[in-house]
Amino acid sequence: QVQLVESGGGLVQAGGSLRLSCVASGRTVSSVDMGWYRQAPGQEREFVAVISWTGGTTDYADSVKGRFTVSRDNAKNAVYLQMNSLQPEDTAIYYCKTTLNSTPYWGQGTQVTVSS
Known about the structure:
mainly beta; four-stranded antiparallel β-sheet; 11 strands; 0% helix; globular
């Protein structure tokens, strides 16, 4: 099993930046893709970004392209989400996710609130 713990959320004004971190423990995640998702109040959880195990391939939701950057440090068993030009619609709980042996693992989430 693997445990994922997110951090770095908080309250920020529109136009500001935050950097989220997700650290894995229990097993290494250096050989698997890692993703970020978010869930706003009253809405379904949605995809935000994904990064391949090498870090060489990334993909983003259209709503965050050009503003968010996903990266990873396999030596630290961690993945990051740099969020710039934040907007109120980015307000949500942000989760990291991975899949090991066909089993999905989610973190507990970190709250991001963007004020206008």
